[in-house]
User: Fold UPF0102 protein DEH84_15230 from Aquabacterium olei.
Amino acid sequence: MLASKVTTKSRGDEAEERALQHLLAQGLTLVERNYRVARGPGAPGAEVDLILRDRDGTLVFVEVRQRTGRDHGGAAASISRGKQRRCIRGAQTYLMGLRDWPPCRFDVVAIDGDDLTWIPAAFDAS
Assistant:
């Protein structure tokens, strides 16, 4: 039997699934997964790992980061301002497709080894 190869993508998918299950258990509902905006001439691409709706109707754009440990600040510290901008750009593009804009926020789920930390309103669009 062939052993499956563990790739960066498979680890990322596993982290996103773990984050999703945690957020669903907190009462959020899934709206979209891996929302991507293609890169165009002079326009950088964008991605939102998870888009969920909170119980109060808030649309939650979630960045999921995983690290094997807390070296160099851990998973949460690895979310650069550039990564935040790509998430914000993805959220803006997503919202342009909606008739009415609900309240929104940007959350982070940081996974360091076995520890999962949910950080609501981790950053904003300013």
Remarks:
- Helices lie at 8-25, 74-77, 81-96.
- The chain has a mean pLDDT of 89.
- The domain at 35-123 is CATH 3.40.1350.10 (Trna Endonuclease; Chain: A, domain 1).
- The two ends are 51 Å apart (CA to CA).
